Amino acid sequence: MTRLSPIELTLSSDQQQLRISLDTSSWQARRHTSSGSECLLDWEGPALDAQNSHRVLDTLFHELGTRQIDLYGSAREAFHTSHPAWVNGADRSAISRPAFYQVREHWLDPALWPVLPEVTEQTGDIQHPRRPVTGDQILYRRFSPALGKTLTLRQATVEKDGERFHRWQNDPRAARFWEYPWSRKRLDAMLDDRRADPHSLPLILEADGEAVGYFETYYVPEDRLGPYCEAGPFDQGMHVLVGERKFLGNRQTNLWLNTLSHFLFLSEPRTQRLWGEPRADNRGMLRYLQSTTWQHHGEFDFPHKRAALLSNSRHRFFADARL
Asked: Taking every annotated instance into account, which residue ranges of this chain make up the domain Acyltransferase MbtK/IucB-like conserved (predicted)?
């Protein structure tokens, strides 16, 4: 896996200048803030290529906490601003935080860029849109300014992940809520079933190539959760298992949840809401409602458990989540 180099942002003592460094390259610009917007002008340094253009913007949004970035003069010429997410005027190019983080081409593998036509299929007695077929390549890649590591998502496989999946599911911490402390053979079969199911996508999240955990995603209308919520035809859900204990903790788990949410909203732009149904007594998971854009909608009874109903709206996520 190719690890992306960190981008360093330094502000002058008077906060009027910023310096950006990446490997052996550096850039400088004059800045000022106005009504929640970060304005850049008097850019010094070479023009940015397409990848570094969006990576610098990602760093600026994260480090400065701004809602919008406005580019003027030489700063405008240094960035790639042709995507429709940009608002281009006579002397200014501007992009808002919600628009920037919904540009799918920045983080998704090109195979995921086309949007599947809305063709109806049927699973049992449920009609739903046809679901995409997903390969085994890196599906999502982003350098996290918060963590200083490259985060990736790929589909889980028995060959690569069978041993760790078995170990994670048999950890008493996970088994208490997942209830799959099964044999390796049985868990391998379960993973293969998830991969073969068109409505399900089993994912492995990695940080600098090191496996963090297993994240099982699904389309809600044809899932067991469907009858218990008002899900749209493209709404998705998730089950979360942070497998390695070193990756637990509020700061890290918030990032894992936001990374997975970001991927799901990008991979299907018609997804308006994400859903979750953890056990109602899973206090460890429910406490993240206080520090993410997920919301609690009460409790309900599955045949096998008492569950909390959670959701995360596209609008609120892109407006308020800190990636």
From this structure: 154-201
Tell me the whole-structure pTM to 2 decimals.
Answer: 0.96
* Weakly modelled stretches of the chain, pLDDT under 50: none
The pLDDT value recorded for residue 188 is: 98
- How buried is 92 (Cβ within 10 angstroms: 0-12 exposed, 13-18 middle, 19+ buried)? middle
Q: Pick the catalytic residue from 38, 206, 268, 277.
A: 277
277 flagged as catalytic: yes
pLDDT reported for residue 303: 87
What HEC string does 217-250 produce? EEECCCCCCHHHCCCCCCCEEEEEEECCHHHCCH
Distance from C-alpha of 219 to C-alpha of 194, rounded to nearest angstrom: 12
* Residues contacting residue 51 through CB under 8 Å, at least 6 positions apart: none
Looking at residue 47, what is its pLDDT? Answer: 82
Smallest CA-to-CA distance from 152 within 139, 165, 168 is with 139
| Cα–chain center distance at 113 | 15
Asked if residue 139 lies in contact with residue 112, where contact means CB atoms within 8 angstroms, the answer is yes
Q: How would you write 39-60 as a 3-class SS string? A: EEEEEECCCCCHHHHHHHHHHH
Rounded to whole angstroms, the Cα distance separating 61 from 322 reads 9
